[in-house]
Design goal:
Number of strands of chain B: 2
Order of helices and strands of chain B: EE
Shape of chain A: globular
Strand order of the largest sheet of chain A: 6-2-3-4-19-18-17-11-15
Helix content of chain B: under 10%
Number of helices of chain A: 4
Structural class of chain B: mainly beta
Helix content of chain A: 10-25%
Order of helices and strands of chain A: EHEEEEEHEEEEEHEEEEEHEEEE
Distance between the termini of chain A: 52 Å
Radius of gyration of chain A: 20 Å
Number of strands of chain A: 20
Radius of gyration of chain B: 10 Å
Strand content of chain B: 35-45%
Largest interface: A-B, 24 and 14 residues
Oligomer: heterodimer
Largest sheet of chain B: none
Number of helices of chain B: 0
């Protein structure tokens, strides 16, 4: 039997909104560690890794490891039926091919349950080694989303370049070119407004903006985003999920031919 | 002109 209960159900709604455009079907792995997922987009260019630790839930029971294959668009449809203040419970019994989502209003005067069919998914799990990154940028997530959105009206790709001067986001297209430079700024009133750049080596990498824009769907989850880069390695774009875990997106770089 | 690499070029399949 597997059961989790999350009082702040809106977090789960936001998590689904952050991954459903990137991945169609995915296996959720349930274990004593927590509720997790690793899935690639259909072209094997981007990957999303989600971890919600068991300690972050108000109630978490997992008698044995369980993999639940779900269509994320359908799961998002069901979670959309939960109110933003609702408590969400996810339940699955051993040996059944369904999962139940239960939504309780804060005053307990409305209780809904939605049952969804599970599916068998052949998942390709990638082994991602721990890496020391040459440059790590922490910046306001809304600012990063704004930059990706603005640059996608100029071009299809973004060149991200980290130097001692700061981090430069550049795009080029038929109508012209754009450069946005963000400098380190740690002297802000609120820590969530800070931009911190840790650089061991200067790094320049090119990425498809379509994927970067898709990652920024996670912006409502966290005030800050962390972008980790090394030469010739996929970038990691990470959003923390309120003391419970993270969503990490990996994106393979474009290379000059 | 640039070409798109794939994640499987960097990470191994488990």
């Amino acid at each position: 039997m597997f059961e989790l209960r999350l009082v702040q159900g809106s977090l789960l709604k936001k998590v689904l909104e952050s991954i459903k455009d990137l991945v169609n079907d995915a296996n959720f792995d349930c274990s004593s560690t927590g509720f997790s997922l690793q899935a690639m987009d259909s072209s094997h260019v981007a990957l999303v890794a989600l971890l919600l630790r068991s300690e972050g839930f108000e109630h978490y029971r997992c008698d044995r490891n369980l993999t639940m294959g779900m269509n994320l668009a359908n799961m998002a449809k069901m979670l959309k039926c939960a109110g933003n203040d609702d408590i969400i419970t996810i339940k699955a019994d051993d040996g059944t091919d369904t999962v139940t989502f239960m939504f309780e209003s804060p005053s307990q005067d409305k209780i809904s349950d939605f049952e969804m069919k599970l599916m068998d998914i052949d998942s390709e799990h990638l082994g991602i080694p721990e890496a020391e990154y040459e440059a790590i940028i922490r910046m306001p997530s809304a600012e990063f989303a704004r930059i990706c959105r603005d640059l996608s009206s100029i071009g299809d790709t973004v060149v991200i370049s980290v130097t001692k001067e700061g981090v430069r986001f550049s795009a080029r297209g038929d109508i012209g070119a754009a450069n946005i430079v963000c400098r380190q700024n740690a002297t802000v009133d609120k820590p969530e407004d800070a931009t911190i750049i840790e650089m061991q080596e200067p790094v320049t990498l090119t990425f498809a903006l379509r994927y970067m824009n898709s990652f920024t769907k996670a912006t409502p989850l966290a005030e800050q985003v962390t972008i980790s880069m090394s030469s010739d390695l996929p970038v990691v774009v990470e959003y923390k999920v309120a003391g419970m875990g993270y969503i990490r997106y990996y994106l393979a770089p474009k290379i000059e031919e | 002109c640039s070409s798109q690499t794939m994640l499987t070029e960097f990470f191994s399949m488990n």
